[in-house]
Automatic annotation (TrEMBL):
Organismal lineage: Bacteria, Pseudomonadati, Pseudomonadota, Gammaproteobacteria, Enterobacterales
UniProt-recorded name of the protein: Riboflavin biosynthesis protein RibD
Record's keyword annotation contains Metal-binding: yes
Pfam families: dCMP_cyt_deam_1, RibD_C
Cofactor, how bound (note): Binds 1 zinc ion.
Active site: residue positions: E52
GO annotation, biological process: riboflavin biosynthetic process
Length: 377
């Protein structure tokens, strides 16, 4: 079989860790000798063995003379586990195929250099775009200090998110709402605003029992962890009476001034930079990146959605399109700047379209010229 077949298997393994590895990257490893897989593994959770270690343990003595296919450059420093590059060298492997370099400054290029210095034949770049996609949040945070930001919206055929009185339950189907549970589970944090919390009083949690069976298989209850709930509350309107405060997991309140209410231990108040009483969203996302948040799923109303789009902070737009018509009196999808010219309208590229129950799920990324592509990785 070809190198691409084995790397595809390594990527498949890496994808299994998408719920549990954050803030670490998802990594898969396959060991092959005499055209046969002798070991494989993936990074399962932070603090646990890395993909290479799992594969080497499985292979044992069969690793001698084998080729390793790894989705991300092996680490070179001692963190929670020993350096994977050293383990590969001592195992007797003779060849390593790496999908991409690790942009983490502690590793970037050093792992590949160490392997080559030890006499191993190393090639890089095989299926790099696929490897990028698996770790978009981690890679963006390492390169730019920012999380990967997903904006999720549920709308009618005519682009409405609620009827005129604000009622929005439920525009989309139960199948779409269950699919959102999978999105939440893969996120480091869920971001919303005090307006949404006061209006809907949502839990913003992952209901483990509502994940689909395939995801539950790789995300068992004993490894389950709620994403952080981050609420922009610059006017200190959120109090302990709201559901998000008393749900499992952490809640972070983004504020101008801390208050002295009695908060449970799972609640933190974050003081983020404001200008003229207006939140500096870029600075907020930088701070969240510094707190090792890889992926943020935004669930908020039209005003905040429009603000994120206006400021070009959205990496991925996810729309659940319901086969319903609400009419012109309904609430709009987002509130963006008034446009005088059609050419100034924000543009997007479709990356995926699929049916979820009776709805259609659209995944889009901002349309950019080639020179800007790096800003959305």
């Amino acid at each position: 079989m070809s190198d691409k077949v084995y790397m595809a298997r390594a990527l498949e393994l890496a994808y299994r860790g998408r719920f549990t590895t954050a803030p670490n990257p998802n990594v898969g490893c396959v060991l092959v000798r005499n055209n046969s897989i002798v070991g494989e593994g993936y990074h399962q959770y932070r603090g646990g063995l890395h993909a290479e270690a799992h594969a080497l343990i499985m292979a044992g003595e069969k690793s001698k003379g084998a080729t390793a296919y790894i989705t991300l450059e092996p680490c070179t420093y001692h963190g929670c586990t020993p350096p994977c590059s050293d383990a590969l060298i001592s195992s007797g492997i003779t060849r390593v195929v790496v999908a991409m370099k690790d942009p983490n400054p502690k590793i970037s290029g050093h792992g590949i250099y160490r392997l080559r210095q030890a006499g191993l034949h190393v090639s890089e770049g095989l299926m790099a775009p696929e490897a990028e996609k698996i770790n978009r949040g981690f890679l963006k945070r390492m390169r730019r200090g920012l999380p990967w930001i997903q904006l999720k919206l549920g709308v009618s055929l005519d682009g409405r998110t609620a009827v005129s009185n604000g009622e929005s339950k439920w525009i989309t189907s139960r199948e779409s709402r269950l699919d959102v549970q999978n999105l939440r589970a893969q996120s480091s944090a869920i971001l919303s605003t005090s307006t949404t919390i006061i209006m809907d009083n949502p839990a913003l949690t992952v209901r483990h029992q509502e994940l689909d069976s395939a995801n539950i298989e790789v995300y068992p209850l004993d490894m389950f962890k709620q994403p952080v709930r981050i609420i922009i509350d610059n006017k200190n309107r959120i109090s302990p009476k709201y559901r998000i405060i008393n749900e499992p997991g952490e809640t972070w309140l983004v504020r101008t001034i801390y208050n002295k209410l009695e908060w449970p231990s799972n609640v933190k108040q974050l003081d983020v930079l404001y200008h003229d009483d207006r939140l500096d969203l870029y600075s907020m996302f930088l701070e969240l990146g510094a707190k090792q948040i890889n992926v943020i799923l935004v669930e908020a109303g039209a005003k905040f959605a429009g603000t994120l789009l206006n400021e070009k902070l959205v990496d991925e737009l996810i729309i659940y399109l319901a086969p319903k018509l609400i009419g012109s009196t309904g609430r709009s999808l987002c509130e963006i700047y008034p446009l005088q010219r059609l050419q100034d309208a924000p543009g997007f590229d479709f990356t995926d379209i699929c049916q979820v129950g009776p709805d259609v799920k659209l995944i889009l990324t901002p349309h950019t010229v080639t020179t800007q592509t790096e800003s959305f990785l």
